[in-house]
Amino acid sequence: MHFWPAISKHWRFGRRHRRGAFAAAALVLAIGLMPQPASAQSALNAVQSRLNFDHLTTGFELTGQHRDLPCESCHVNAIFKGTPTDCGACHGIGTVVRATAKPRNHILSTDQCGACHTPVAWNPAVNFDHTQARGSCSTCHNGTMAQGKGPTHIITDLECDACHTTLTWAGATFNHVGVTSGCAACHDNVHAVGVTATHVPIGTPVTSCESCHSPTNYTTWNPGVINHPAVSALTCASCHETANFQGM
User: Fold this and answer.
1) According to the model, what pLDDT value does residue 13 have?
2) Alpha-carbon span 166 to 163, nearest angstrom
3) Contact between residue 105 and residue 145 where contact means Cβ atoms under 8 Å apart
4) Residue from 124, 146, 149 nearest 135 by CA
5) How far apart are CA 227 and CA 58, in angstroms?
6) What are phi and psi of 139, to 5 degrees?
7) Can you give the C-alpha Rg of the chain in angstroms?
8) Closest to 166 measured CA to CA, from 141, 130, 142, 113
9) From CA 176, how far away is CA 218, in angstroms rounded?
10) 39-68 b/e (C-beta count within 10 Å ≥ 16 → b)
11) Segments making up each domain of the chain, as ranges
């Protein structure tokens, strides 16, 4: 009868001992998994340093879309030193930094995105620097990609910069060199100044301007030298009948 109480007492003691051992082991494991004071402070310092880091000290200010990007979007493989700051080095095809590149329908230009765009958004392009454009004027000014010739524009195959500047379309200085369509193709009082009300009759078919006016003096119509063979379809009285012309 004294045997079972002894065994029971020993079992209860052993069970309590085992529970205590398990609790102690769990406590040791938990303490081991917890960051030690030094490492915890180091991690906190790293986070605080990142939050307080002034990116402007690198020479590249984070503005617009760049400001909200995660660091790894530009700093590939956690490499910070040597990250390019030129637009084309990131916003290009096949670059290490996979940033948005120019679409297929972009005008021919250099890779200096900042010449036209801002970091806030691609569209609208707030400025346009023609020095960064490649190709001729009509490459862009074709009525689709950029404003082209209007319906009342004179007939010409010349490039825009033969007459216009990159500042404005108005105030064009016309360059007649290269025009082969004849004066009347433009000087029809629609596209450009044509025959006035006091002009001598030009007959049918119409006598060309250059038959009497200089084809090389583009500053004035005068003096016009009458080319009588060119107006052979008219009679003398068609012109020599007013005070403006010497009569017969």
Assistant:
1) 43
2) 10
3) yes
4) 146
5) 76
6) -60, -35
7) 43
8) 130
9) 7
10) eeeeeeeeeeeeeeeeeeeeeeeeeeebee
11) 69-134, 183-248
User: Distance (Å, rounded) from C-alpha 235 to C-alpha 116?
Assistant: 63
Q: What is the 3-state secondary structure (H, E, C) of 96-117?
A: CCCCCCCCCCCCCECCCHHHCC
The distance from CA 174 to its chain's CA centroid, rounded to whole angstroms, is: 29
Residues with Cβ within 8 Å of residue 15, at least 6 apart in sequence: none
Residue with tokens 């590939």: 76
Which amino acid is present at 166?
Answer: T
Tokens found for residue 234:
């008219």
The fraction of the chain above a pLDDT of 90, given in percent, is: 0
The pLDDT tens digits for 31-69 are: 455 555 666 667 666 556 666 778 888 888 888 888 888
Report residues of the chain scoring pLDDT below 70. Answer: 1-41, 43-51, 178, 180, 230, 232-234, 241-248
DSSP string over the chain = --HHHHHHHHHHHHHHHHHHHHHHHHHHHHHHHSPPHHHHHHHHHHHHHHHH--GGGGT----GGGGGS-GGGTSGGG--TT---SHHHHSSTT-SS-PPPPPTTSPSB-S-GGGT--SS-SSS-----GGGB-S-GGGT-SSSSS----TTSPP--S-GGGT--SS-SSS-----TT--S-GGGT-SSSSS----TTSPP-TTTTPPGGGTS-SS--S--PSP---GGGGTTS-GGGTTTSTTS---
* Residue-level length of the chain: 248
